[in-house]
Amino acid sequence: MLVKMVMTFVVGLLGGCLAKRLKMPAAFMTGSMIAVALFSILTNQSAMPGSLKVFAQIVSGAYIGQQVSKADLLNFPKLSKLIVLLLSFFTVNMFAMGLLFHYLFSIDLVTALLSCMPGGIMDVSLISIDMGAQSEIVATMQLARLVGILLILPAWIQFLLKRLGKDDVSSVNKTKEKMQKIHPFGTNRNWTNDSLILIIAGIGGLLGVYLEIPVGALIFSLIFSSLLKIVKNTAQLNSSIRYLAQILAGSIIGSTFTHHSVQQMSQLIVPALLLLGSYLIINVLFGFIVYKKGDLDLKSALFASSPAGATDISLIAGELGGDMPKIAAIQISRTIYTIVVLPNLVRWFVGWIS
């Protein structure tokens, strides 16, 4: 068993490194999942215990928690109505598309709903393992959404701005917030900073496991990490730790792939396109409503309602002239909502409808 685990991890590591060189989105997660899936299908020798998901969840929660700053907290009350509107759209879309996939494409209900969650591929995939869904289907759908949004988004937003005659940068808030003069507790190269974050997030994650709360390790590690960030102003985790967690998560999911699951993948092309289309509709609807109300400029509203990685969207928005602090605050709210609230809504809904 140990030999199989080491082999699986090495395959996942190589796959992640290759995906990174090819500049794939969520490279280490995606690359490790694909590589281990191929290894599992071809050799039937893959092995990665699901218990390692707790470590991956703790690291993921720690990483997300470190994105919440005091500035974000100040922005949240001002953006509360926008955030509630967007999260309502995403929630309705998740249930509508999930039920459609369940009844039209015969995907089990939990898997269908989780496939439509507007979260990160790693976070939602880990949640799917915790909730007993078909994680390979969820991961594939999440990957399709992520890749589709990141590939389409810049051209899509430019197209909309030109069609609506709003392709000017005068309305965009170009002022950049000055760097906080408060020095972080540590730096990305400081092992004490990373150790402190992982210890605090680990305590929270283990508390979540002990309380037997659904996805508790992820939720509580995120909460504890956020509190640490706000109190101590810690720096973001070293990226190599995040990559390790991604490789483990990708390897866990990849090891669940079989010949049967590969046959199922061909049936996901239409659902993936439908899901992507539904998110683009939400993008236009939310952007237009918010712009008309004068709460955000149109470009920033479109970026804020794009369901890809919070970091990825914020960086793209910064390059193309969006109001980055507000976009980041809305994106972080979406990420936290996806992890903390939506899994419990799915669990309640499935129990109620059964």
TrEMBL record:
InterPro entries: AbrB_dup (IPR017516), AbrB_fam (IPR007820). Keywords: Membrane, Transmembrane, Transmembrane helix. One of its GO terms (biological process) is regulation of gene expression. This is Membrane protein AbrB duplication. Signal peptide: none annotated. GO terms for cellular component: membrane. It holds the Pfam family AbrB. It comes from Enterococcus phoeniculicola ATCC BAA-412. The chain crosses the membrane at residues 29-47, 82-105, 143-161, 196-223, 243-262, 268-291. It comes from the Bacteria. NCBIfam families: Gneg_AbrB_dup. PANTHER family: REGULATOR ABRB-RELATED.
